[in-house]
Design a protein that fits this description.
- This protein is mainly alpha-helical.
- It folds into 2 domains: about 5-50 and about 305-350, no CATH class; about 65-285, f41 fragment of flagellin, N-terminal domain (Up-down Bundle), CATH 1.20.1330.
- The protein has 12 helices and 4 strands; from the N terminus they run αααββααααββααααα.
- The strands form 2 sheets. A two-stranded antiparallel sheet has the order 1-2. It has a two-stranded antiparallel ribbon with strand order 3-4.
- Helix 2 (about 40-90) packs antiparallel against helix 10 and helix 5 packs across helix 8.
- The chain starts with a helix and ends with a helix.
- About 30% of the residues are buried.
């Protein structure tokens, strides 16, 4: 190879290097396609996949976090209803107060209507308290909470109250509130042991092999335990108390001993509902905190992995610019030398 050919070859190499570095400066990336990163390409693929997986978990946590926020709000209002009726209504029920029942029926019925709306809370088209039956309301007919089969059965029992049978009336209202068949205001899906009643609570994946359980069904306790004067579920305790209050009339007030005994049962049931709802909210709050911790962990790890990936795929802009300037200078010098060589002749060389 003569000197001119060698100079052209070296010039072509410099031009190629300059073009590569110019693209790197423009894009900030070492290569336009993953295959050009060899031998670091497999590591880049692994890092990208890990980052993508963690981003998926973060999105899932965000979506479920929104659901849990709305659920907490609904549970908080249900707890407030239980607390208001326990302290402001049931605590004041007394056969010695002729005005004890003023506005009680209307307030109880309004609260039952509100319960229907709260238990049918939706977010982005999903019913939050319906188990996995996301498209259908857990309380198909909210108006039935006021005048449906369960409310009617409880009203019939309350209508039989006298001075001697308060315990029997309480037992009858308890049985009606526990019914998961014809008297139930809840969806067939939720009450069916082969469907909602027998399914696991909804959960969300927060890491490989790790899930957090957050689901709460409208017709049963989730994480909470109920004790005292209870049906075994906070929602049924609250329904029982409100339906019993809605059924009370001056006729029951005149049954002094029976009325006072039934009032005590109502207070106990509302207290049980309030306590269990507080426990439910606390358990859900714990899940929310764990989800936030998991999201933060994924974010921190993703940031660390992004730095490792950047070390493989991205260029050091300052050093690349410096090298680009150096190569450009060398290329310009090469052009000048090549041009000078091409102008040489034997006569000029021998002169």
């Amino acid at each position: 190879m003569d000197i001119l050919s060698r100079m052209n070859f070296e010039t072509a190499q410099l031009r190629g290097r300059m073009e590569v570095m110019a693209r790197q400066v423009a894009s900030g990336q070492r290569a336009e396609v993953l295959g050009d990163l060899a031998p670091d390409a497999p590591r880049a693929v692994d890092l990208s996949a890990d980052i993508a997986r963690r981003e998926t978990y973060q999105r899932a946590i965000d979506r479920t976090g929104g659901r849990m926020e709305v659920m907490q709000s609904s549970l908080g209002r249900l707890k407030a209803i239980a607390g208001e009726f326990r302290s402001e209504v049931a605590m004041r029920l007394s056969s010695r107060d002729a005005n004890a029942l003023v506005t009680v029926q209307s307030r109880a019925r309004a609260a039952l209507s509100e319960m229907g709306a709260l238990l049918n809370t939706r977010l982005n088209g999903e019913y939050l308290f319906g188990g996995t039956d996301l498209a259908n309301p857990p309380v198909p007919d909210p108006a039935a909470l006021v005048n449906g089969p369960m409310a009617s059965a409880i009203a019939v029992a309350v209508g039989t109250l006298d001075n001697t049978n308060a315990s029997a009336v309480a037992t009858s209202t308890l049985t009606s509130a526990q019914d998961n068949g014809a008297l139930s205001p809840f969806s067939t899906f939720l009450e069916d042991p082969a469907q909602g009643a027998g399914e696991a609570r909804r959960s969300m994946p927060v890491a490989d092999g790790e899930k957090l359980v957050f689901g709460i069904r409208a017709n049963a306790n989730a994480a909470a335990s109920s004790d005292g004067e209870t049906t075994g579920a906070w929602v049924r305790d609250l329904l029982r108390g409100l339906m019993t209050l809605a059924a009370l009339t001056p006729a029951q007030l005149s049954q002094r001993e029976g009325f006072d005994a039934l009032a005590q049962t109502i207070r106990g049931g509302l207290q049980s509902a309030e306590n269990a709802l507080a426990e439910e909210m606390g358990a859900l709050g714990s899940v929310q905190r764990q989800a936030k911790v998991a999201k933060t962990r994924h974010q921190d790890l993703s940031d660390a992995l992004q730095k490792q990936l950047a070390g493989i795929t991205e260029v050091d802009m300052a050093s690349t610019l410096t090298r680009l300037q150096a190569v450009r200078g060398s290329l310009e010098a090469s052009y000048r030398v090549t041009a000078s060589l091409s102008e040489l002749s034997l006569a000029r060389f021998l002169r």
